[in-house]
Specification:
Elements: H1 6-16, H2 21-32, E1 62-68, E2 74-80, H3 86-99, H4 104-107, H5 114-119, H6 125-149
Antiparallel strand pairs: 1-2
Helix pairs in contact: 1-3, 2-3, 3-6
Length: 157
């Protein structure tokens, strides 16, 4: 069985060791500040974004796309329409930096509770549903990629 991507495993280990809530919040704000680098390029999509790319249940109106890279991994792109959606922006940056280019089989191994490892257990139900929705969309793209490339580890599509 594939392990989760190495970059994400390192990041989760760092967050799981954080006990200072204010330190965690500041780090997540700093990560969200890098969001401009993960915006969806015009060649992928333009506004108004299609509803099928909208993350269900995300209060920040987050959208997710994937593009196949030459090595058959995926590059993920994100849009967050709510300018106050700092958590969705931080999640987008984290998933771009740790899951883009990772083997799809490893992306499918990322547990849903990774969101709680990153943000802490104080997340509201609404926020956690939206952030887990971003992960679910990324994993759905990985599942589709495995099915397209004929990998037997794909399981049912």
């Amino acid at each position: 069985m594939a392990a989760i991507p190495e970059k994400l495993a390192r990041l989760l280990a760092m967050f799981s060791g954080m006990e200072d809530r204010s330190e965690r919040i500041q780090l997540l704000i700093d990560i969200a500040d890098r969001f401009k680098r993960v915006l969806v390029p015009e060649r992928i999509a333009s506004r108004p974004y299609p509803k099928d790319k909208l993350v269900p249940g995300c209060e920040s109106q987050a959208y997710v796309w994937a593009e196949e890279l030459p090595d058959r991994t995926l590059k993920f792109y994100f849009a967050v329409e709510n300018p106050q959606g700092i958590s969705a922006m931080a999640t987008s940056v984290i998933f771009d930096e740790t899951l883009s280019g990772a083997p799809p089989e490893q992306i499918l191994q990322v547990p849903k509770d990774a969101i709680y490892t990153i943000f802490g257990n104080e997340l509201s139900m609404g926020k956690s549903m939206g952030l887990m929705g971003i992960l679910a969309m990324v994993q759905n793209y990985a599942r589709q990629q495995i099915a397209r490339t004929g990998d037997p580890a794909a399981g049912p599509s």
